[in-house]
Amino acid sequence: MGKDVIVACDFSSKADVMNFLDKFKDEKPFVKIGMELFYSEGPSIVSEIKARGHKIFLDLKLHDIPNTVKKSMAVLSGLDVDMTNLHAGGGIPMMEAALEGLTRPDGTRPLLIAVTQLTSTSQEIMERDLLIDKPIDEVVMHYAHNAKTAGLDGVVCSPREADNVHEKCSQSFLTVTPGIRFADGDVGDQVRVMTPEKAKLNGSDYIVVGRPITAAEDPVAAYKRCVKEFVD
Ligand code: C5P
């Protein structure tokens, strides 16, 4: 599985995302479509971006009873996405059902990645709101292991956790890592950040990069810089 840079297209309208993608002439970045774009534009936004030659990571983070997730994943699979995700907190039966739903009649399927604990969930929130009293790092690794047990392809995690996830799950278990910033760039609201180059050294398989590319004066140059640091 080759390393790749996924551009988080956190736009809320088709006009904005197409205006952004129009800047790319020779390059066809792997694109992450999030809830805001999917909910505002509907499933056609996936096929339209796909038709332009981009791979798609559909970031909808499903979490429901196994039967509902299975049927929803079958719909997403039909949209021809390349990667999608769910919450590992839904449990192993839900993750297994998701895989089943995602698998097309010809046996192919998009990659399925689990979110462990959201980065917005602190130790305090976990203990107070979720009544989970284990250290958050342990919970994250346990959820990653559950995802591996259910047959998923990988997890979303911090590039700092990539090595550990590979060690606990397997080297081929994918780590999809946001929180990427250039050494000379703005950190914004991300707290623990890493450069594309360091993420590569730490073993990340995919980096998810939003504002360092989408808000750059020259997004194509910023994307190429990510590829140069992370892939080449
Ligand atoms: O703009 P920025 O590079 O911070 O965007 C990172 C992307 O990765 C956003 O789409 C954000 O929602 C997503 N993400 C994240 N941290 C996580 C999970 C997803 O930043 N733990």
Brief characterization of the structure:
The protein is built from 11 helices and 8 strands. The protein is α/β, with parallel strands linked by helices. The chain has one domain (4-230): Alpha-Beta Barrel (TIM Barrel).
Structural summary, described in words:
The chain has helices at 14-21, 35-41, 44-51, 66-78, 92-102, 123-129, 136-150, 162-168, 196-201, 211-214, 219-230; strands at residues 4-8, 30-34, 56-62, 83-87, 111-115, 154-156, 174-177, 206-209. With 232 residues, the protein is of the alpha/beta class. The protein has a single domain (4-230), classed as TIM Barrel (Alpha-Beta Barrel), CATH 3.20.20.70. Strands 1-2-3-4-5-6-7-8 form an eight-stranded parallel beta barrel, surrounded by six helices. The longest helix has 15 residues, at 136-150. Cytidine-5'-monophosphate is lined by residues 8, 10, 34, 119, 156, 178-180, 188, 190, 208-212.
